Amino acid sequence: xxxxxxxxxxxxxxxxxxxxxxxxxxxxxxxxxxxxxxxxxxxxxxxxxxxxxxxxxxxxxxxxxxxxxxxxxxxxxxxxxxxxxxxxxxxxxxxxxxxxxxxxxxxxxxxxxxxxxxxxxxxxxxxxxxxxxxxxxxxxxxxxxxxxxxxxxxxxxxxxxxxxxxxxxxxxxxxxxxxxxxxxxxxxxxxxxxxxxxxxxxxxxxxxxxxxxxxxxxxxxxxxxxxxxxxxxxxxxxxxxxxxxxxxxxxxxxxxxxxxxxxxxxxxxxxxxxxxxxxxxxxxxxxxxxxxxxxxxxxxxxxxxxxxxxxxxxxxxxxxxxxxxxxxxxxxxxxxxxxxxxxxxxxxxxxxxxxxxxxxxxxxxxxxxxxxxxxxxxxxxxxxxxxxxxxxxxxxxxxxxxxxxxxxxxxxxxxxxxxxxxxxxxxxxxxxxxxxxxxxxxxxxxxxxxxxxxxxxxxxxxxxxxxxxxxxxxxxxxxxxxxxxxxxxxxxxxxxxxxxxxxxxxxxxxxxxxxxxxxxxxxxxxxxxxxxxxxxxxxxxxxxxxxxxxxxxxxxxxxxxxxxxxxxxxxxxxxxxxxxxxxxxxxxxxxxxxxxxxxxxxxxxxxxxxxxxxxxxxxxxxxxxxxxxxxxxxxxxxxxxxxxxxxxxxxxxxxxxxxxxxxxxxxxxxxxxxxxxxxxxxxxxxxxxxxxxxxxxxxxxxxxxxx
Length: 707
Hints:
Blueprint: E1 5-7, H1 10-21, E2 24-28, H2 37-48, E3 54-59, H3 71-85, H4 92-99, E4 106-110, H5 122-126, H6 136-142, E5 147-157, E6 160-164, H7 170-181, E7 188-193, E8 205-207, E9 213-215, H8 234-244, E10 252-254, H9 259-273, H10 275-285, E11 304-310, H11 312-319, H12 331-338, H13 348-356, H14 366-374, E12 383-385, E13 388-391, E14 394-397, H15 403-413, E15 424-429, H16 433-441, H17 444-447, E16 450-452, H18 455-458, H19 465-471, E17 475-480, E18 483-485, E19 490-491, H20 507-516, E20 521-525, E21 529-532, E22 535-538, E23 540-541, E24 556-559, E25 562-565, H21 571-579, H22 584-596, H23 615-627, H24 642-658, H25 661-672, H26 680-685, H27 694-706
Parallel strand pairs: 1-9, 2-3, 2-5, 3-4, 5-7, 7-9, 10-11, 10-17, 11-15, 15-16, 17-20, 18-23, 20-24
Antiparallel strand pairs: 5-6, 6-8, 12-13, 13-14, 18-19, 21-22, 24-25
Helix pairs in contact: 1-2, 6-7, 8-9, 8-23, 9-10, 9-11, 12-19, 24-25, 24-27, 25-27
């Protein structure tokens, strides 16, 4: 690898980029927080100002600070955004894309969009690229990417600059492999140092020589995008509790971001720390008949996290000591751990096991010695010299069968704990402010157990099947979906109109692995209902004109009303099991449709025990546990103050009323003549201490009336 060119000015880097690549740039940038926003904005503005230039951006999940739409929302959000998002710079291409003012010489293609944000944006919909996450690196190159850039962390080690791909080794490592394998492909790679990025070790820790350009401009450092924790409703908890009961001790876990992910993590923590209460909760929400798949025990062995997204829920499980099952890159060692022939404690018997499995030979060769040192089986004090093991002034032949050598090895050469174990593998991370700070502050020994890596490793088995199968035992790949058909297909990312809500991401990958691994399960969660255009509708439907996961890959489906195990079942049985977890207000209509289409016997009736699937019943069962503090609104804290949470509830009431005109009229009449006194602090927070003009006075009345 050649020595990279270094730039302490973003603009100088852009100049050099055009001089190297020319006026037509196809730019690949990571999803989420791995984007070097200042460099991307400088490049974007340069092309925008010159019609002779062309720019195509290929990326995903382009994040922007929250913006209020109404005057009240802006009064609330502006101080909050300034406090939480700091100097995070929005992406100029996102601003123009939303406004519909993207220049003709610039194109933006995403493979995963912020959920629901671009449904009515024709430009975004037309240029969307439908790719499995594991195919993104390949598809970027299909699109002709000639520049790749990302934000990195940096530190000096032994006088040399080391870089960390930090939040996003996911696509970069896969793409670099493809680029280096094709000598005819010329792609300029750019690392942009953002000093706010946590320096992640293992696969994310790379040499600066991996990149062509390295930008060290201080202007490239800025606050990381930090979405606040969302409120976890009792409906979310019901789903999360059911999901948590399917997680097997000693197994593998994948979860996602948002309130459902937090609900699962908190439920697992309750299972570990309040086990008797957990058992009672599961009994209550299951009507005294838990699914046969359920597990209730504590996590004596711990869990291993293997998730495309390393989210705050995983951090909480690490802090709780639940994510702690270490996996290793050597198949023999991992197999011995799985079979409980060894533990992570180094013992003399471990050498015998490795010798028996032919992982090493006796006498030890240099490569055997290096292998044992790499995994901490031999201590750092031991050296190898001409077929002998040396500790200080003492030496013996490197034989595992010579009695004197064995005694010496046992007494003076063995390490104490296996080294190189990973208890959390992730492809990218995104989380609240304290999540990033924990990564920055984490002691190196603990951080070494977190392996940010390529998505090609995490999201599939191909190319590393032996070790992946050994590591991912008892895997529970838990994902969210929007709708499920009564025959078991899942709708997770798009509408039957063809419009994309978000993207497939890695969901198909994990569903496929759930079927490919013998003791794994694919688990899809959904809320049983939603409000659509002011009307309550079921998210369990007869059929739908778009599917993300086909019905032949149906496995486990969870709603707030229970667990439907669909694996290996007939169509009729699948329908019955999904009806059992559907909202009771829609069960009759769904059953009628199934009967009309000949998929269920005409005389079938839904059992009486499944006829009480209603929100009030779920809430009545869980509210006592919330009152006891086991199921809090924000289990992992929130960036909102208590006063702001009070204000949010008032604003939500107002927003709901504006969507229902009759309610708004009643609200106005009820509040306009009221003289409700509220603490001045709420008015000060919203800058409504003084209200001039009829409109602002009315807004103030409505706001005060809803506090």
